[in-house]
Specification:
Blueprint lengths: L6 E6 L2 H6 L7 E5 L7 H14 L3 E5 L17 H16 L5 E4 L2 H4 L7 H20 L4 E4 L13 H10 L6 E5 H6 L4 H8 L3 E6 L11 H13 L5 E4 L6 H24 L2
Parallel strand pairs: 1-2, 1-8, 2-3, 3-4, 4-5, 5-6, 6-7, 7-8
Helix pairs in contact: 3-5, 6-8, 8-9, 9-10
Keywords: Isomerase
Protein name: Sugar phosphate isomerase/epimerase
InterPro entries: IolE/XylAMocC-like, Xyl_isomerase-like_sf, Xyl_isomerase-like_TIM-brl
């Protein structure tokens, strides 16, 4: 019996990081949406830089960059504007061949104090439903990412995201599970991945806390094992805040290669 590992990716946040990703032992790159907020000539140059790495750009995160201050819930919600930004970001990402869009965007979905949560939930459902259609029309899939309470007060766990995704059944929306968010909220990674089983469309991981380069091997091992147990075979992106990408990214990718290989061997022996 053989067990395949998820493809291993790495997020890139700047053109310099893209350049340094050439030769990285990853399977794909994930683009930070903020990096794509440039003019046509710069986008074309960036496309060339990504192609030069030899790695596909399989995913994009942050499709509602904070600079645009989009709001999709609350009295100040403006779906017309937010969807305009979202569609533009997806069109930009399409030039790189992106197929998975990860919607975190905590600022856009945070519920104002005193605003009815049920109303916010309906607003969010309406926005995500339309965003999913926009992704589908571009050959992309939309994944919804639970975030930490420090980033938003709405959808902080897979247990909270699962009912949303289930209600949107048929739209193609799935869950993006992030080991850092799960651990930061003090949640059990096995339980969180388990509740998302059958609806996982993407996965992220990083050091805990992000940027610390403390990867907490026991948590990462449990996370990868839980993904396998859930039947997930998609991509696992290292979403790290590298202070020195060229020096830190290669050993980080190798660390997760080892975690994935060890887990695959354990799965094959069962």
């Amino acid at each position: 019996m053989t067990t395949s590992s998820p493809a291993l990716g790495c997020i890139v946040r700047t053109p310099d990081e893209v350049k340094q990703a050439a030769g990285l032992a990853a399977d794909y790159l994930e683009l930070k949406g903020d990096m794509l907020c440039v003019g046509p000539e710069d986008i074309q140059e960036l496309v060339g830089l990504v192609r030069a790495t030899g790695l596909p750009a399989a995913a994009m995160t942050s499709p509602l960059p904070r600079r645009f201050k989009c709001r999709v819930v609350g009295d100040d919600a403006d779906h017309t504007r937010a969807l305009t930004v979202f569609r533009d970001m997806c069109d930009r990402a399409a030039r790189f061949g992106v197929r998975t869009v990860v919607l975190g965007s905590g600022q856009a979905r945070s519920v104002p104090d005193g605003f009815p949560v049920d109303t916010a939930r309906r607003q969010f459902l309406d926005f995500v439903s339309q965003a999913a259609k926009d992704c589908e029309s571009r050959g992309m899939s939309l994944t919804l990412e639970p975030l930490t309470a420090a980033e938003t007060n709405f959808l902080n766990s897979c247990a909270e995201a699962r009912p949303i995704v289930d209600e949107l059944a048929g739209t193609g929306v799935r869950i993006a599970v992030d080991c850092y968010h799960v651990a930061s909220e003090g949640l059990n990674v096995t339980d969180e991945v388990g509740v998302a089983a059958g609806a996982i469309g993407h996965a992220h991981t990083s050091s805990i806390p992000r940027g610390s380069m403390d990867f907490r091997e026991e948590i990462q091992t449990a996370f990868v094992a839980a993904l396998r147990a859930a039947g997930y075979t998609g991509g696992l992106t290292v979403e790290e805040d590298f202070s020195d990408f060229g020096r830190q990214a290669p050993p980080t990718i190798e660390f997760f290669r080892r975690i994935l290989a060890t887990d695959a061997e354990a799965g094959a022996s069962r």
